[in-house]
Every structure is written in structure tokens, then in C-alpha cells.
Amino acid sequence: MGYDEAWIGEHHSAGSEIIASPEIFIMAAAERTQRIKLGTGVVSMPYHNPLWTVERMVLLDHLTRGRVMFGMGPGALPTDASMLGLEPQQMRPIFEEYIDIAYKLLTTDEPVNYQSDRLTLKDARLHLRPYSDPLFDLAVAAVASPSGAKLAGRYGAGLLSLGATVAVGMDVLAHHWTIQEQAAAEYGQVADRAKWRLVGLMHLAETEEQAREDVKYGMTQWFRYFQNVAAFPQMAVEGGNLDEMIDFVNGGLGVIGTPEMMVKQINELVEQSNGGFGAYLTLAHNWANKAATSKSFELFAREVMPHFQSSGGGLHAAADRAQARRDGLAEKQLKAVAEATERYEKETGTAG
Questions:
Q1: 8 Å CB contact between 11 and 19
Q2: Which of 18, 95, 134, 347 has the maximum number of C-beta atoms within 10 A of its C-beta?
Q3: What does the alpha-carbon distance between residue 297 and residue 283 come to, in Å, rounded to a whole number?
């Protein structure tokens, strides 16, 4: 359907979000596709040895012939971290140290040495350089805190704004970009809005009534997961019954409705970002069954994407110009056919 990217995350607890290894999932998806780029959205860096994480990404880069993207984050679920003996306040400091290791391994041939109570690296290097020249896309996750935006700026990476449409996310979008630009300038990098990806929620149908009917399939379970199970307060959602849940989403979190509603939502995000962004990502949520979900993706591709892609920007103007000249050109066309017929008859002596 013409989608450019898919990002696959990592979770290990709480009974939902069951993909434990985005790298394995990406390889399975890569075998079934040819063009779409596939990213880790994200690898929770504090859970892993950064040397081996980078080695796996370089291998994927070669196996996919440059279709891989490396998204990194500190880890979102405290229930994941607790099984490794990690406390929430440890996650970002470890992440900052590990992303620095990953960046050095990917961009230099210098040996990396590191020592902490959790990890030792001695003269660590990659033994295979990336397939992508000079490097596959790097991205850093951000929800509410400024740390993700600051790291993205420091390393010239893209920014994955995972909570773009939650209330706190909408409030800090432009602020995040300012932070990234400042950090990029400080470290001699370039903050590129084309690498800024905003994540939101949607389910589309031909009518809003049909969309509301579709999400009866699984929306309540999704809401209960974030309300009662996942210790992820940045994704606070409200609603005691299905109608309240739908109204909460349509109050700014996302769209359960029509493509026209989705166009309006993205335009609001563009305005909130104070300058625009590179891509809109929709969060996969299993609100609807497979057929309705496929229809939603199809409607987005056919009726929403063209509003934001420059390649189709002149079509309406071209149609208007052609319509304005139609009668006169049609008359000339008929005259040309008549003249060609007359010439043929004269040449062949078949004139009546």
C-alpha cells in the first residue's frame, strides 16, 4: 500500500506487546518484503550489551541490503527492567552511556573501552562495517522528558516522538525540537526535521459510525492494559466504557473515524510542531479485526497520504486547467481528425 517504514519494539512483561526481539521480527518481515524499511522501535539499550546490539544491527543491515533503521531507547516498562535488577532512575543514565558506545562503534574504527558495575568492554570494535554508506538511520525515542531530544541532537539522530498525541506530548513537541537543535549545534551535528517521526493513534473507516463499530473488537482490552497493567504513566488514558474511550481518543489522542478526520489531526500536529516533521507513524493496537484493520491502512494510504505528499500536489490544478480548455481542445481534436480523413481520401482517391 505504499508505506515507507515499519518500526518494531521490544517488551518482555505485562502480558501484552509480545515481541521480545525486534531484530528477529525484522528479519522475518524482511524476507517477506522488498522495499519497506524496517526499524527497531526501539531496542531498550540498558537491557543489552551495546557491542552485541550493534553487531546484530550491522548484520541486519547487510541481510536487508540497507533497509534497516536503528531506534534506541531507555526502556518503557518497569516490569521489564525489574527482572534485570534495574530501577527506573537508572535507565536513562545507562542509556546515555550505552548510546555513546554504540555511536562510537558505528562511526569510528577506534577501540572502545568501558567499565561499570554492569559491563566491561576491552578494545571493543566491530569486525564488519555497515552495509549502508555511511550508516543506516539512527533514531532516539522521546515521550515527555527532554533526554531523548537532547541525545538525538548530540548524535545527529532522528527523533521518535512516541507520545506525540498524548496531552503532555502535544505540549512539548516544539520544545523537544528546540532542545534537539540546541544539542546538535553544541556537538557539531545537524538537526533534520525530515528525520523527526511523530507517533499517533488511528482507526479509519468509511464513516465514523463504522469506525466506532470496528473497535468493539479489542479497544477495551487495550485501554485496560494501559489503565491497570502497564506501569507507563506517560500513556495515561481515560474511559470507563467503550463510548468514553472512543471519545477520549477523538478528543486529541488520535482518530477513530474517517480519513477527513485524520487529515485534520495531522495538520494539527504540523502546527503544534512549529515547523513540520518528516513522518507520521501510526501505533499498531489491535483495536479492530484483521479485515477492518487492513481497510483502515488502505484508507490512510489512499485518502490521507496524498494530502501530505508533494508528488500529487498539482493534480487538482492540472484537472482544473484541462477542464477549462476542454471544449476548445475537443473541437480542435475533431477538426484534426476530419482533416486527416480528408487528406487520406484525396491521396487514395476514395473521396465520396
A1: yes
A2: 95
A3: 11
Q: Which three cell numbers stand for residue 266?
A: 495531522
DSSP structure string for 173-242 = HHHHHHHHHHHHHHTT----GGGEEEEEEEEE-SSHHHHHHHGGGTHHHHHHIIIII---GGG----SSH
What is the distance between the alpha carbons of residues 25 and 312, in angstroms, rounded to a whole number?
33
Of 35-44, 73-82, 171-180, 285-294, the range with the lowest mean pLDDT is 171-180
157: Cβ contacts below 8 Å, ≥ 6 apart: 137, 138, 139, 140, 151, 195
> From CA 141, how far away is CA 160, in angstroms rounded?
5
Question: pLDDT digit string (tens) for 255-297?
Answer: 999 999 999 999 999 998 889 999 999 999 999 999 999 999 9
pLDDT digits (tens, 9 = 90+) for 73-89: 999 899 999 999 999 99
**pLDDT beyond 90 at 311:** no
Q: Taking CA 269 as the corner, what is the angle to CA 242 and CA 262, rounded to the nearest 5 degrees? A: 50
Max Cα distance, the chain (Å): 102
